């Protein structure tokens, strides 16, 4: 399954089944496939369709509902029950469909200058957001939370404004001035109370409270070069945030409040240094106050479109990266030490057996992690998930 044949990638976690169910949807020029991943060693293909030239395929968590857009009819959305093989409905729009997002209450269709909000139960259009700033990439995010069912989309084509819309009460919730440059990525955490953003420069990632829009965290991905952020993803409980790009490095940040420095010369020097930043230019001050990556992943490729997710598989924190080169990569994340993550397995997305990998043969199992959850790992620090 080569890079050219992968036209759509969608990786989601099912909130109903906790952290143990990952669903991967892969669209290709010859059809689309659904995979389920409950263990590191087994990628189970649960469905395959021969619908040609699929450019968008989105599955509603672990259900049978799927939304499909094809290259042959880019303005038409088909909603199907894939297990029954039946089409539930189809809708045509005035322009090319650039993105489709869905949760248990709403289905969002994103065009370049408008957004359609459908009721997931009967697919009726509840609201249309018209004359949005040009959004040629179809950038938007929909929270999976039933309690905080928000939609985020760019509020400007020239600067990094985020519009937050309440899709239940059908009203604007906030406008967040997130970046100086146009947005490149947005994602909600599972609770719908945090929003992570990145701009086209790709050097700084920010996390805001929702719906208030208060900046909670600011992380620096790098300073040497600007990159294109491909994917942002929170872990299910919101303690970790991953960022992948068109480079070979994935960064994982830890969302925790810094502890009070001990009364040592190092702690004293740190306080003096931070106090002195009030006299420095704002860009220099930001460099001192921004958090750095807690963990990193070195991918065996660069330049491919990819998506990432953080999940517990077999009680161990993992980073999943699905890439347009036709592979799914799984890495272990050490929740105490961080550092460089270990590649544990790679799966081909065409379902064929994967030959032994030299990287894996070089002792990737040398540092087995003890079985634990993100929450128990987080308890050793100062951050309490869900309280921020």
Reconstruct the topology from this structure.
Blueprint: E1 6-13, E2 22-28, E3 31-37, E4 43-49, E5 54-59, E6 65-70, E7 76-81, E8 86-92, E9 99-102, E10 106-111, E11 114-119, E12 125-130, E13 141-142, E14 150-154, E15 160-166, E16 171-179, E17 183-188, E18 194-199, E19 204-209, E20 215-220, E21 229-234, E22 240-245, E23 249-254, H1 265-276, H2 282-289, E24 295-298, E25 306-313, E26 316-323, E27 327-332, E28 339-340, E29 342-348, H3 358-361, H4 374-378
Parallel strand pairs: 24-28
Antiparallel strand pairs: 1-2, 2-3, 3-4, 5-6, 6-7, 7-8, 9-10, 10-11, 11-12, 13-14, 14-15, 15-16, 17-18, 18-19, 19-20, 21-22, 22-23, 23-24, 25-26, 26-27, 27-29
| Integer-rounded radius of gyration | 21 Å
The main sheet orders its strands as 21-22-23-24-28
Mass-distribution shape: globular
What is the total tally of β strands?
29
Task: Give the rounded overall mean pLDDT.
Answer: 83
Largest pleated sheet: 5 strands, mixed
Please bin the fraction of helical residues. Answer: under 10%
> What does the oligomeric state look like here?
single chain
Distance, first to last CA: 43 Å
Class per helix and strand makeup? mainly beta
Explain what you see.
It is built from 4 helices and 29 strands. It has 388 residues and is mainly beta. β14 (150-154) and β15 form a beta hairpin. It is globular and about 50 Å long. Residues 282-289 and 358-388 have low confidence and may be disordered. This is WD repeat domain phosphoinositide-interacting protein 2. It comes from Oncorhynchus tshawytscha (Chinook salmon). It is found in: Preautophagosomal structure membrane.
